[in-house]
Protein backbone atom coordinates (compact mmCIF):
# COMPACT_ATOMS: atom_id res chain seq x y z
CA UNK A 1 0.00 0.00 0.00
CA UNK A 2 2.87 2.38 0.72
CA UNK A 3 4.14 2.16 -2.87
CA UNK A 4 0.60 2.67 -4.20
CA UNK A 5 0.15 5.79 -2.09
CA UNK A 6 3.45 7.25 -3.22
CA UNK A 7 2.61 6.47 -6.84
CA UNK A 8 -0.68 8.34 -6.32
CA UNK A 9 1.12 11.47 -5.11
CA UNK A 10 3.81 11.30 -7.78
CA UNK A 11 1.10 11.55 -10.41
CA UNK A 12 -1.08 14.03 -8.55
CA UNK A 13 -0.72 17.73 -9.25
CA UNK A 14 -1.73 20.09 -6.43
CA UNK A 15 -3.34 23.38 -7.37
CA UNK A 16 -2.89 25.21 -4.10
CA UNK A 17 -2.27 28.59 -5.70
CA UNK A 18 -5.73 28.69 -7.27
CA UNK A 19 -7.56 26.38 -4.85
CA UNK A 20 -6.26 27.91 -1.64
CA UNK A 21 -4.16 31.07 -1.86
CA UNK A 22 -6.32 32.67 -4.57
CA UNK A 23 -9.51 30.81 -3.70
CA UNK A 24 -12.73 32.47 -4.90
CA UNK A 25 -14.21 31.61 -1.49
CA UNK A 26 -13.26 34.26 1.11
CA UNK A 27 -13.32 31.86 4.10
CA UNK A 28 -10.98 29.39 2.44
CA UNK A 29 -8.69 32.13 1.21
CA UNK A 30 -8.57 33.65 4.70
CA UNK A 31 -7.69 30.35 6.32
CA UNK A 32 -4.81 29.42 4.06
CA UNK A 33 -3.33 32.91 3.93
CA UNK A 34 -3.44 32.94 7.72
CA UNK A 35 -1.73 29.54 7.87
CA UNK A 36 1.03 30.59 5.47
CA UNK A 37 1.59 33.89 7.27
CA UNK A 38 1.97 32.21 10.65
CA UNK A 39 4.51 29.70 9.34
CA UNK A 40 6.47 32.40 7.52
CA UNK A 41 6.62 34.50 10.69
CA UNK A 42 8.40 31.67 12.51
CA UNK A 43 11.02 30.88 9.89
CA UNK A 44 11.66 34.12 8.02
CA UNK A 45 14.94 34.77 9.86
CA UNK A 46 16.69 31.50 8.98
CA UNK A 47 19.22 31.73 6.18
CA UNK A 48 18.35 28.31 4.76
CA UNK A 49 14.96 26.57 4.92
CA UNK A 50 13.72 23.23 3.61
CA UNK A 51 10.03 23.06 2.73
CA UNK A 52 9.46 19.30 2.76
CA UNK A 53 6.36 18.36 0.78
CA UNK A 54 5.92 21.78 -0.82
CA UNK A 55 3.21 20.82 -3.32
CA UNK A 56 3.12 23.48 -6.01
CA UNK A 57 5.27 25.80 -3.93
CA UNK A 58 2.91 28.36 -2.41
CA UNK A 59 4.59 28.51 0.98
CA UNK A 60 8.14 28.20 -0.41
CA UNK A 61 7.67 31.02 -2.89
CA UNK A 62 5.92 33.33 -0.42
CA UNK A 63 8.71 32.75 2.09
CA UNK A 64 11.39 33.56 -0.47
CA UNK A 65 9.44 36.66 -1.49
CA UNK A 66 9.30 37.90 2.13
CA UNK A 67 13.05 37.79 2.75
CA UNK A 68 15.61 38.49 0.05
CA UNK A 69 18.42 37.06 2.22
CA UNK A 70 16.95 33.57 2.49
CA UNK A 71 17.64 30.49 0.45
CA UNK A 72 14.70 28.13 0.15
CA UNK A 73 14.72 24.50 -0.93
CA UNK A 74 11.30 23.41 -2.20
CA UNK A 75 10.93 19.62 -2.23
CA UNK A 76 7.99 17.47 -3.29
CA UNK A 77 7.43 13.94 -4.55
CA UNK A 78 5.52 15.23 -7.59
CA UNK A 79 7.60 16.38 -10.57
CA UNK A 80 4.61 18.32 -11.89
CA UNK A 81 4.26 20.05 -8.52
CA UNK A 82 7.92 21.06 -8.56
CA UNK A 83 7.60 22.43 -12.10
CA UNK A 84 4.64 24.54 -11.00
CA UNK A 85 6.62 25.77 -7.99
CA UNK A 86 9.48 26.77 -10.28
CA UNK A 87 7.07 28.65 -12.54
CA UNK A 88 5.56 30.50 -9.57
CA UNK A 89 9.04 31.41 -8.31
CA UNK A 90 9.83 32.83 -11.72
CA UNK A 91 6.64 34.91 -11.64
CA UNK A 92 7.54 36.26 -8.18
CA UNK A 93 11.13 36.98 -9.17
CA UNK A 94 12.66 34.65 -6.56
CA UNK A 95 13.77 31.70 -8.71
CA UNK A 96 17.49 32.48 -8.28
CA UNK A 97 17.22 32.10 -4.49
CA UNK A 98 15.36 28.81 -4.61
CA UNK A 99 16.29 25.22 -5.32
CA UNK A 100 13.71 22.74 -6.54
CA UNK A 101 14.04 19.06 -5.68
CA UNK A 102 11.91 16.02 -6.42
CA UNK A 103 12.05 14.01 -3.21
CA UNK A 104 10.16 11.83 -0.75
CA UNK A 105 9.34 13.24 2.72
CA UNK A 106 10.02 9.76 4.14
CA UNK A 107 13.48 9.69 2.51
CA UNK A 108 14.66 13.29 2.24
CA UNK A 109 17.60 13.37 -0.21
CA UNK A 110 19.91 15.53 1.91
CA UNK A 111 22.66 14.86 4.43
CA UNK A 112 21.92 14.78 8.14
CA UNK A 113 22.09 18.15 9.85
CA UNK A 114 21.73 20.15 6.64
CA UNK A 115 19.11 22.74 7.62
CA UNK A 116 18.62 25.30 10.37
CA UNK A 117 14.87 25.14 9.70
CA UNK A 118 12.58 22.49 8.22
CA UNK A 119 8.94 23.13 7.34
CA UNK A 120 6.39 20.34 7.16
CA UNK A 121 3.04 21.96 6.42
CA UNK A 122 0.10 19.57 6.12
CA UNK A 123 2.34 16.75 4.92
CA UNK A 124 2.76 14.19 7.71
CA UNK A 125 -0.92 13.24 7.72
CA UNK A 126 -0.56 12.13 4.09
CA UNK A 127 2.40 9.82 4.62
CA UNK A 128 2.15 6.03 4.75
CA UNK A 129 4.57 6.17 7.72
CA UNK A 130 3.96 9.22 9.92
CA UNK A 131 6.81 8.41 12.30
CA UNK A 132 9.32 7.99 9.48
CA UNK A 133 8.37 11.43 8.21
CA UNK A 134 9.06 12.90 11.65
CA UNK A 135 12.40 11.09 11.89
CA UNK A 136 13.46 12.54 8.55
CA UNK A 137 12.64 16.04 9.75
CA UNK A 138 14.82 15.44 12.82
CA UNK A 139 17.65 13.89 10.79
CA UNK A 140 17.94 16.79 8.36
CA UNK A 141 17.74 19.49 11.05
CA UNK A 142 20.91 20.98 12.47
CA UNK A 143 21.59 20.32 16.12
CA UNK A 144 20.14 23.69 17.09
CA UNK A 145 17.63 23.71 14.24
CA UNK A 146 13.89 24.34 14.32
CA UNK A 147 11.02 22.32 12.90
CA UNK A 148 7.79 24.07 11.97
CA UNK A 149 5.11 21.40 11.69
CA UNK A 150 1.49 22.11 10.72
CA UNK A 151 -1.15 19.40 10.97
CA UNK A 152 -4.93 19.20 10.56
CA UNK A 153 -6.81 18.22 13.71
CA UNK A 154 -10.36 17.11 14.45
CA UNK A 155 -11.84 19.13 17.32
CA UNK A 156 -12.89 22.32 15.53
CA UNK A 157 -16.28 23.04 14.01
CA UNK A 158 -14.65 23.34 10.58
CA UNK A 159 -12.87 20.02 11.01
CA UNK A 160 -16.13 18.29 11.84
CA UNK A 161 -17.86 19.92 8.88
CA UNK A 162 -15.16 18.50 6.61
CA UNK A 163 -15.37 15.08 8.27
CA UNK A 164 -19.08 15.31 7.50
CA UNK A 165 -18.20 15.56 3.79
CA UNK A 166 -18.84 19.27 3.36
CA UNK A 167 -16.60 22.26 2.71
CA UNK A 168 -16.42 24.92 5.44
CA UNK A 169 -16.06 27.66 2.82
CA UNK A 170 -19.53 27.50 1.23
CA UNK A 171 -23.02 26.33 2.07
CA UNK A 172 -24.34 23.31 0.25
CA UNK A 173 -27.12 20.75 0.54
CA UNK A 174 -24.85 18.78 2.88
CA UNK A 175 -24.25 21.66 5.27
CA UNK A 176 -27.27 21.09 7.52
CA UNK A 177 -26.06 17.68 8.68
CA UNK A 178 -22.31 17.84 7.99
CA UNK A 179 -21.26 19.04 11.45
CA UNK A 180 -23.31 16.37 13.22
CA UNK A 181 -21.99 13.63 10.98
CA UNK A 182 -18.44 14.79 11.62
CA UNK A 183 -19.06 15.05 15.37
CA UNK A 184 -20.25 11.44 15.49
CA UNK A 185 -17.09 10.31 13.68
CA UNK A 186 -14.91 12.21 16.15
CA UNK A 187 -16.74 10.80 19.18
CA UNK A 188 -16.45 7.26 17.83
CA UNK A 189 -12.72 7.72 17.23
CA UNK A 190 -12.29 9.01 20.78
CA UNK A 191 -14.24 6.12 22.31
CA UNK A 192 -12.12 3.66 20.33
CA UNK A 193 -8.95 5.41 21.53
CA UNK A 194 -7.88 6.11 17.96
CA UNK A 195 -5.39 8.84 17.06
CA UNK A 196 -7.99 10.65 15.01
CA UNK A 197 -10.33 10.25 12.06
CA UNK A 198 -9.25 9.01 8.66
CA UNK A 199 -10.71 11.59 6.31
CA UNK A 200 -9.44 10.18 3.03
CA UNK A 201 -8.07 12.36 0.28
CA UNK A 202 -9.03 13.34 -3.25
CA UNK A 203 -12.11 11.14 -3.13
CA UNK A 204 -10.25 8.04 -1.93
CA UNK A 205 -10.70 6.53 1.54
CA UNK A 206 -7.58 4.38 1.10
CA UNK A 207 -5.24 7.37 0.77
CA UNK A 208 -4.27 8.53 4.29
CA UNK A 209 -5.35 11.93 5.51
CA UNK A 210 -5.86 11.67 9.25
CA UNK A 211 -7.26 14.49 11.35
CA UNK A 212 -5.71 13.73 14.73
CA UNK A 213 -6.67 14.78 18.23
CA UNK A 214 -4.23 17.61 19.07
CA UNK A 215 -2.90 16.03 22.27
CA UNK A 216 -2.28 12.71 20.51
CA UNK A 217 -0.57 14.34 17.54
CA UNK A 218 1.81 16.22 19.84
CA UNK A 219 2.44 13.15 21.99
CA UNK A 220 3.29 11.08 18.94
CA UNK A 221 5.70 13.65 17.54
CA UNK A 222 7.36 14.04 20.93
CA UNK A 223 7.73 10.26 21.32
CA UNK A 224 10.80 10.58 19.10
CA UNK A 225 13.61 13.12 19.27
CA UNK A 226 11.61 16.35 19.08
CA UNK A 227 10.38 18.54 21.92
CA UNK A 228 7.68 21.14 21.42
CA UNK A 229 8.72 24.69 22.24
CA UNK A 230 5.21 26.01 21.61
CA UNK A 231 2.09 25.15 19.69
CA UNK A 232 -1.07 26.99 18.79
CA UNK A 233 -4.17 26.90 16.60
CA UNK A 234 -3.86 28.12 13.04
CA UNK A 235 -7.39 29.56 13.05
CA UNK A 236 -10.49 29.09 15.20
CA UNK A 237 -12.38 29.28 11.96
CA UNK A 238 -16.16 29.65 11.92
CA UNK A 239 -17.51 27.90 8.82
CA UNK A 240 -19.57 29.58 6.11
CA UNK A 241 -20.05 33.06 7.64
CA UNK A 242 -17.24 34.85 5.83
CA UNK A 243 -18.89 33.89 2.56
CA UNK A 244 -21.41 36.67 3.03
CA UNK A 245 -19.53 39.62 4.53
CA UNK A 246 -15.92 40.69 5.00
CA UNK A 247 -16.95 41.94 8.45
CA UNK A 248 -17.12 38.33 9.62
CA UNK A 249 -13.54 37.76 8.47
CA UNK A 250 -12.39 40.86 10.35
CA UNK A 251 -14.07 39.46 13.45
CA UNK A 252 -12.48 36.09 12.74
CA UNK A 253 -9.03 37.70 12.56
CA UNK A 254 -9.62 39.39 15.92
CA UNK A 255 -10.75 36.11 17.53
CA UNK A 256 -7.74 34.26 16.13
CA UNK A 257 -5.27 36.90 17.31
CA UNK A 258 -6.63 36.86 20.86
CA UNK A 259 -7.34 33.16 21.38
CA UNK A 260 -5.16 30.95 19.18
CA UNK A 261 -2.42 30.67 21.85
CA UNK A 262 -4.71 30.14 24.84
CA UNK A 263 -4.44 26.75 26.53
CA UNK A 264 -8.03 25.65 25.88
CA UNK A 265 -8.71 27.34 22.55
CA UNK A 266 -5.52 26.19 20.82
CA UNK A 267 -7.11 22.73 20.70
CA UNK A 268 -9.99 24.07 18.63
CA UNK A 269 -8.22 25.21 15.48
CA UNK A 270 -8.81 23.79 12.04
CA UNK A 271 -5.22 22.67 12.52
CA UNK A 272 -2.26 23.21 14.82
CA UNK A 273 1.21 24.63 14.25
CA UNK A 274 4.09 23.25 16.32
CA UNK A 275 7.48 24.86 16.81
CA UNK A 276 9.89 22.11 17.84
CA UNK A 277 13.58 21.44 18.44
CA UNK A 278 15.73 18.41 19.14
CA UNK A 279 15.52 17.13 22.70
CA UNK A 280 19.27 17.18 23.27
CA UNK A 281 19.50 20.92 22.57
Number of individual domains = 1
Helix-strand category = alpha/beta
What value does the Rg take, in angstroms?
18 Å
Order of helices and strands: HHHEHEHEEHEHHEEHEHE
Looking at this structure, what is the CATH superfamily? Vaccinia Virus protein VP39
Number of strands: 9
CATH class: Alpha Beta
Sequence of strands across the biggest β-sheet = 3-2-1-4-5-9-8
Average residue-wise pLDDT: 94
- Which descriptor suits the 3D outline? globular
Uncertain runs: none
How many DSSP H or I helices? 10
Proportion in helices? 40-55%
**CA(first)-CA(last) distance:** 36 Å
* CATH topological fold name: Rossmann fold
The CATH architecture designation is 3-Layer(aba) Sandwich
Give structural attributes.
alpha/beta; Rossmann fold; two-stranded antiparallel sheet; 9 strands; about 40% helix
Describe the structure.
The protein is α/β, with parallel strands linked by helices. The protein has a single domain, classed as 3-Layer(aba) Sandwich (Rossmann fold). The chain is built from ten helices and nine strands. The strands form two sheets. A seven-stranded mixed sheet has the order 3-2-1-4-5-9-8, with helices on both faces. Strands 6-7 form a two-stranded antiparallel ribbon. This is Methyltransferase type 11 domain-containing protein. It comes from Candidatus Fischerbacteria bacterium RBG_13_37_8. One of its GO terms (molecular function) is S-adenosylmethionine-dependent methyltransferase activity. InterPro entries: Methyltransf_11 (IPR013216), SAM-dependent_MTases_sf (IPR029063). Residues 50-149 form the Methyltransferase type domain.
Amino acid sequence: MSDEIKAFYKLRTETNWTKRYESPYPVRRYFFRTLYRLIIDYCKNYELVLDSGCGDGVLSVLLAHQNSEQRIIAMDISLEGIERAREAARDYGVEKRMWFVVGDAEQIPFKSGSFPAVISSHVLEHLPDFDKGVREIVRTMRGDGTAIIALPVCLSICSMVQLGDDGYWKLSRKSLFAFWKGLVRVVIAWLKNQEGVQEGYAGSQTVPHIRRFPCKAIRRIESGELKTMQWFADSLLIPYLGQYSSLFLKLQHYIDTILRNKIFFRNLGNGIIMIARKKNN
